[in-house]
Amino acid sequence: MYNLDPPLVTSLLAVQVPKGRRQICRYDDGTGDSLDVPLGTTAFFSGYKLYELLSEEEKRFIRTSKVEYAAHPYIWMSKAKSRSNGLGIVSEGLELSDNDLPPVDDSKVKIYPMAWKNPVTGNLAMMVYPTCIRKIHLENGEVLDDLEDIREKLYKMQRRGIDPNRIYAHDWKEGDLVIFNNHGVMHSIVGSFSESEVRIFRQCNMAASYAPQGPEEMK
Question: What region holds the TauD/TfdA-like domain (predicted)?
């Protein structure tokens, strides 16, 4: 989310997959939610479905706002702690200061729409990477930069998208090839392994010739 645009398509090829048991993925976020998953699964959720779940007020906010991502995001957040359910970062002030980052080229800082438009169907997906977000730009020119408040606002909207009944957890078999729309679907590896269990995958990110497309102006 810095310098390079996110790939349009991502493929995952299962080379070696641990076998023989399943795991319970506990959200531990106060909801009591959990998900029975295959060992070494990849969990997917749809940004299109998430957008549909928003209220009309939330949809308008998403359609008319943009997100600014941190420079060198994975270095910037390297000391921060993830939420228990993996959806974003806990706000403890542990992000690195600008002085502790590699040199930053402002022209490489990415600002994207919060809603990404499918160029074929025209459908909108809420596609915001909560771990990397730094600011929100509103349509009136105001910039929100209170990181804790921004994270809470987004979390309240995105959390409904990872309800257990809205997750697809792929049951990998060696040789499986999964190809997905990286401008409409979000994914994460789930689970943990013993020392004897090995998971080997090959990932290919196919670059787009354009940045994520936002919605046409909607009032």
Answer: 2-203
